Amino acid sequence: MTGAERKSRSGRRDRGVRTGPLAPPYITRKIPYFEFLDEEGLVKLETQADWLLQEIGLEFRDDPIALEILAAGGADVKDTRVRFPDGLARHLCRMAPCEFEQLARNPAKSVRIGNQSTVFAPIYGAPFVHDAENGRRYGTIADFENLVKLTYGLDALHHGGLVIVEPCDVPVNKRHLDMVYAHMRFSDKPFLGAITAMERAEDSVAMARILFGADVLEKHCVIMGNVNTNSPMMVDKVVTEAIRTYCGAGQGIVVVPFILGGAMGPVTTAASVAQALAEAMGCCAFAQLVRPGAPFVLGNFLSSMSLKSGAPTFGMPEPVMSNYVIGQLARRLGLPLRCGGALTASKMPDAQAAYESADSLHSTILGGANFVLHSAGWMESGLVSSYEKLLMDADRLGAYRVLLEGMDMSEDALAKDAYAEVEPAGHFLGSAHTMRNYETAYYDAKMSDSESYEQWLDNGSHDAMWRANARMKDMLANYEAPPIDQAVDDELRDFIARRKASMEDAWY
Fold it and tell me: What are the structural domains, with CATH classification, of the chain?
């Protein structure tokens, strides 16, 4: 297919797509960051991270090509241990953009990641799904498609992510094809690609090339991978091959050290934050050696744990502090940040889920995260994707948008004309100023019930979970798929069919 033909198909694909969501496609922050540590504390953490990279080093295992790239780039490579001479990692990290755009197939929903922008994406990676009527169970492809459709319909979620739940009824080696296709077909928001094996990452990039066109991929980021380092201080081939695949194609990568304090990192928060910074910096340096200027998002997923049981805990003060501090460190390094989310260990969308998620999200927001994976639907320490919590969390994300956009300080917001109209001891309910502004003055929380007790009784005495359940059913019943060019859809389906036919089913 020629470039002209591809360009023509791309033009046809954009026609008839909705002009965009009611809310903006991403949030532009207008409020200050919460600066948790002073200069002395930040320098200590940066010095510790540099020491780890120079003296301890990172293990880069099972990928000889990665070791060759690192050695050629100036790293000290001995067997599989890689040390970065003084200043090398920071120098390479500065090649990555501080902000970049990820295109959506609906241009009105493209997002910017970095600097003052905030992008919310749903839970990622849960094997189980839960809803109020059917309880906890393994996820299916039907659940996966439902959750993609719900994410598409929730304006507070700007990005689809990828594995909203594992479709466990599809073979492991083939399910990535169905997941990536579902995001392409049932939504028109940006999305992530697969990373669990190099050929799955390559399939994801190939499908993105079909959807957007090869010429677009050469110039723009349209897909990213999200990977975890194997903490402590190890980068396995899942990470390096994903970086080589996505960054090598000019696409983005999100690298997140997942550190459970006392297990994959020291039990002290300061040491774990410095370790996360070192691991992420080493991966960013590698990404820039693969392709200078490749989009890179620095991640941090630090969890405390119960030292009695070893179970991870969420919404606790230690990871809250890490969210604030990693934000400061990422800004000093000039890299976009991913951290936090609506995290909880609760087994139900209950009070525990609400307060743990609120503390985690609030610190994520104030700390300055640019890309927030797990921002909605996370339950049971990430093992469960909850239908109802997806909607409940998204409702709160809308409120955070209002907070991040700051207080309106315009002349109209100061309402001088209202004081001229309303006498002392009067009321403003019918004033001209109120009538001009009442529809947009306050955030409308759809999942909250603020009516009287009697009205609540008359409406069925439903708690938040059951209100979310009813809205979920309504959204799915009224879902309409965004338009897609039929030739592109046919080409995607043909690619998937050929790839599936080329391999036997594997269930592990």
Answer: 1-406+443-501 (3.20.20.480)
